[in-house]
Design goal:
Blueprint lengths: L6 H24 L4 H9 L3 H4 L2 E6 L2 E6 L5 E5 L7 H16 L7 H9 L6 H19 L4 H22 L8 H19 L5 E2 H5 L8 H12 L3 H29 L3 E2 L27 H16 L4 H25 L1 H22 L5 H12 L2 H10 L2 H27 L20
Parallel strand pairs: 4-5
Antiparallel strand pairs: 1-2, 2-3
């Protein structure tokens, strides 16, 4: 039973709650949360705060409407991507608000604190992270040793280029094209100078993989399957546009340097072990067991590039190694495409189970690293760059498999009693939440 408020006081409180919940939704959008999940978080806020409010979420804004008089509160996201640590804290805050462990009145201060978090060595970590991601992917996809070394150097150059362009207003639109052009020109010039012949696709794509919008495109497909047609379509078009710009950069660089790409080198994570080469020396491929070390380096690079911090980086390493193990086990049994979806379902259920036992480790901290390894964004770029119909079809099928796997995992996590998340009515002491 709720206490009745005077109309003026009730209107003022409703306006305040609408603004607070709108700010929380905008924070989640900046953290990369899908509009479907943002809306669900807001709709599960304490009933007293959300009573009489209706939520509409777009990719860059949250619209909160008071049902009784139609008054609308529009809150825009900042458009600046948050670091991984900030994103995890935003997700944790949203869940704490749902459970009632954080009063709605305290949300503005918590949102400001999250947004004001700084990264001490952001520029250095971005460059090192970009180089590590390139190195990890080149080893995981078993590029020749000369390509592995080149990928590290080009990855660092791409990281520096992105940092420089970020300081120029309006330059963000050309970052995908220029980064792909730089990567292709350097790799092509190296291959030409050393007379290396055909170049593996991942030798060009690995250094720019940190810019591939794979998570964004997959989020778009998830939103489409959740009937968020407008937002899903908008994200999908933008993601495809970015991939198109990167493919154009690769094509331009190939034309300038005379680079010849090996179209048969396009592969998925689970099938990279089948890549073979008869040459030795710098043309030899990394041993298959070294792929595990490549996954660790990839995870460390993601942690550096996206500002995860030490503890979250260790979580990223553990989750990505486990995900790679799942792909290695499932691919020979069900095929690479189905294995991606099955691994996504398993990891998602595991992430929700961990979240249920310890609110300090929300699902984003465990599932997102696996998501970055599972998502075939780089494969999509490779498919476009190679103009290979089979590679493009494989990439699209993997996207669909990943979306279905994630949806199945979500249904299982929300249905099975032992895995189901605590409801907002659950006592905070039953969730293991910290005060």
């Amino acid at each position: 039973m709720t206490t009745e408020r005077a109309p003026e006081a009730g209107t003022e409180a409703s306006q305040r709650d609408a603004r607070i919940l709108g700010d929380l939704g905008a924070l989640l959008l900046d953290a990369g949360t899908s509009v479907t999940d943002v809306r669900e978080h807001l709709e599960h806020a304490p009933e007293q705060a959300r009573a009489g409010l209706d939520f509409s979420v777009l990719p860059r804004m949250v619209l909160v409407v008071r049902v009784d008089d139609g008054a609308a509160t529009l809150v825009s996201a900042s458009g600046k991507d948050l670091s991984f640590r900030q994103g995890v804290r935003a997700s944790r805050l949203a869940r704490e608000v749902e459970l009632g462990t954080v009063p709605v009145a305290e949300v503005p201060a918590r949102v400001d604190a999250i947004r004001s978090m700084t990264r001490p060595h952001a520029a250095r970590d971005r460059i090192l992270g970009s180089a590590a991601v390139a190195l990890g992917l080149a080893v995981v996809f078993r590029c020749p040793w000369w390509a592995v070394l080149t990928s590290v150097l080009v990855g660092a150059l791409v990281g520096a280029l992105v940092l420089a362009l970020d300081r120029l207003e309006g330059a963000g639109a050309v970052v995908p094209f220029l980064s792909a052009l730089l990567s292709t020109v350097v790799v092509g010039a190296t291959a030409s100078a050393l007379d290396l012949g055909d170049v593996p696709l991942y030798a060009v794509c690995a250094p720019i993989a940190v810019l591939v919008p794979g998570a964004l495109v997959t989020n778009a497909l998830l939103e489409l399957t959740a009937t968020d047609i407008v937002t899903g379509a908008a994200r999908l078009v933008y993601g495809v546009l970015v991939l198109g710009l990167m493919s154009a950069g690769i094509a331009a660089g190939s034309h300038l340097t005379g680079l010849t790409l090996d179209h048969d080198s396009a592969t998925l994570v689970g099938t990279a072990r089948k890549v073979t080469a008869s040459a030795g020396g710098w043309h030899a491929l990394p041993p298959i067991p070294l792929s595990w070390l490549g996954v660790v380096v990839l995870a460390l690079g993601i942690g550096l590039a996206f500002g995860a911090g030490l503890r979250l980086t260790l979580v990223t390493v553990a989750v990505m190694v486990a995900t790679y193990a799942l792909l290695a086990l499932l691919t020979p049994v069900v095929g690479a495409i189905t294995a991606s979806g099955a691994a996504a379902a398993i990891v998602f259920v595991g992430a929700r189970a961990v979240e249920r036992r310890a609110l300090a480790v929300p699902a984003t901290a465990t599932f997102q690293p696996a998501f970055l390894l599972l998502v075939p964004g780089t494969v999509g770029l490779v498919a476009l760059a190679s103009t290979d119909v089979h590679a493009f079809t494989t990439s699209l099928a993997t996207f669909v498999s990943l979306c279905l796997g994630t949806k199945i995992g979500a249904v299982l996590a929300d249905t099975l009693p032992r895995l189901r998340l605590p409801s907002p009515r659950t006592s905070p002491t039953q969730t293991g939440a910290r005060p």
